[in-house]
Amino acid sequence: MKIRTKIILPIVLTAVIVLSVATLYSYFFNVNSLKTITNAHLETAVSSRAHHIDTFLNTEREKVEMIASSFIFKKIFDKNSLNYDNDIQNACNRIDKIVKTDSTIYELFTLNINGEIICSNNKKILE
Asked: Distance (Å, rounded) from C-alpha 79 to C-alpha 59?
């Protein structure tokens, strides 16, 4: 083997080994960074969606609580009511008006103490 080859061969081998190690390190570092960034982004997106859903459900719950606190609906459950059938009819009429005026409400119904539907805007379930 020539002297020139003996000098160049170790330099080239060293360069190839160093570049290979640097390339592998860079590859694994970048993959790990991308996984970390992707996970952080997904966690943020999930947290944002969960907050959005929670806010939506709280708004809907407050809407239902406001409707339920109406005097018309409280009167249905008053044991001393003298005209129960009229109270039920008033509640059903009120439900119809609420559903017609609020496009976010698809169906609304009132249950009695036994869990039976006593009035609803969906007349099919009352039959």
From this structure: 31
Q: Which residues pair with 26 in a beta bridge?
A: none
The SS3 of residue 30 is helix
Radius of gyration (Cα) for the chain, nearest Å?
A: 35
Structure-token pair, residue 61 = 């719950």
Q: pLDDT 10s per residue in the chain (127 long)?
A: 788 888 899 999 999 999 999 999 999 999 999 999 999 999 999 999 999 999 999 999 999 999 888 888 888 887 777 788 888 889 889 999 998 998 888 889 888 888 888 888 887 776 6
Distance, in Å, from the CA atom of 109 to the CA atom of 123, rounded to the nearest integer, reads 10
**DSSP assignment, residue 69?**
T
Contacts (Cβ under 8 Å, ≥6 apart) of 60: 104
User: Residue 72 in contact with residue 93, Cβ under 8 Å?
Assistant: no
Candidates 79, 59, 82, 77; CA nearest to 118 is 77
